[in-house]
Amino acid sequence: MGKEGRRTAAASNAARKASKSENIGAGRAPAHAAATNAATAKWSALVVALVALALWSALPNTRPSGRAGSPAASSRESASDEVPDADADSAGPPATQHNLKANVDKTLKTVKVSTRDVPESEPSRPISRMEKEWIPTTLSALVMSAGVKVGDRIIEPKPLKTKLVKSASKSKTQVKMYTLDDLLTSAECSGLIRAHDHHVQNMKDPIFCFDSETTMQAHLREHDQLRSLRLGDADFTDGTTCLNTTMSQRLDKFVKYSVSTAFYTGESKFSHEMDRRIEEASGMPRAHGGKYQVTSYGRGVGYKTHTDCRVGSREKRDRFATVLVYLNDVESGGHTIFPELGVSVEPRRARSLIWNSMSADGVCDGTSVHNASTVTSGRKVILQRWYYYHTFPTLGKRFDPPRIPARREEQPFISCDQYDQGSCRMYDEWQY
């Protein structure tokens, strides 16, 4: 044993002797022992409190966040007598804890963010009997028919040939793709576009929302006029990653985005008729369908490469298949491209495109990745609906909007998703 070891041992022996002496003394003086024990307990409690305080101080600072609203039903005025109500999509802004530190580099070039994006949840609510007893049904395949009746015509599905490219993420694909020309009539296409445009005219002063601050910074770097934009806590609304109206108006001058409105099954005769055509053509039950979305792309607007389902997720309440209908001829651009399958579909008025994104066992197939190429001339307008692998109680139902952020009753928002897999899109239906 070295010198240091001997010193330690000696100190330990001395401590034991002292402890023994104190215990003997305690036997002669009970009152003194009780006081000593009480003091020791106080010091122990103080040490625990100091350790807890130190651990708490090490956590990142966050501001209290508001809470997103709970889903329910809502209604809007009809945009056209010929076609369904056209209302906005439900892919709403995330309600998150937001905090931009005072020492953040406000130029957004070398910004350092110390924010934790932690979704806030609504206080627990009673679970309805329907939700408790809900048994989901499964949609695991496209079962294409020989034809679907549209007016006096029979429209036949046509399979698209797919071939995995060498750079594909997988060696096999479960994706099947079909086109049906003239699934809608020319009058129906025109009516949907009119309803959409009428509704968009009332969408004023949109609020910009981002899925994260990282996404926000990346989008701003795209524009020379916004790279030096200084942002502080006052530019955001409490409890969200949404900019306030004033700052949103500055971004609106430079950021390009598509515009989406929506309607739901049961809100018009057309919605029931469209349900029938899709089910008759593909075998997909209407109960598995979400809302219908009408989306327009102006010149210079597209949508980045993405999958409709979530790769790697075990969630079965996910988008099994997509039905997309082109409502107009596009002068140039606007193709739907599947880079891993070697497929590019040209937008043509009334042409529909149907494909599955998940396998029969409910796994998202990464080879379904696709994009909407940039419109280089004219505009593109589409009708789209997602069908889900498992049903759930709120599927295809209109919800009440969340309480935050603070806004006018009809004020729309622009949602900017993950920068590398998403683009910006304007909606007026504030749903998460």
Structure description:
With 432 residues, the chain is an alpha+beta fold. It is 25% helix and 19% strand. A hairpin with a 2-residue loop joins strand 2 (148-150) and strand 3. Helix 1 (3-28) crosses helix 2 (30-58). It starts with a helix and ends in a 5-residue tail after the last strand.
Annotate the secondary structure layout:
Elements: H1 3-28, H2 30-58, E1 87-88, H3 129-133, E2 148-150, E3 153-155, E4 158-159, E5 177-180, H4 186-200, E6 207-210, H5 213-221, H6 245-252, E7 258-263, H7 269-282, E8 289-297, E9 303-306, E10 319-326, E11 332-333, E12 336-338, E13 343-345, E14 352-356, E15 370-372, E16 375-377, E17 380-388, E18 413-416, E19 424-427
Helix pairs in contact: 1-2
Range of helix content: 10-25%
What is the string of helix and strand elements?
Answer: HHEHEEEEHEHHEHEEEEEEEEEEEE
Report how far apart the termini are: 67 Å
**Number of DSSP E strands:** 19
Low-pLDDT sequence parts: 1-43, 46-123
Largest sheet: 11 strands, mixed
Mean pLDDT: 78
